[in-house]
Amino acid sequence: MDIQKPVMDGLEAIAQIRLAPSMINIPIIALTALAMEGDRDRCLAAGANEYMSKPIKLKQLDLLVQQLL
Question: How would CATH label the architecture of 10-68?
Answer without folding.
Answer: 3-Layer(aba) Sandwich (3.40)
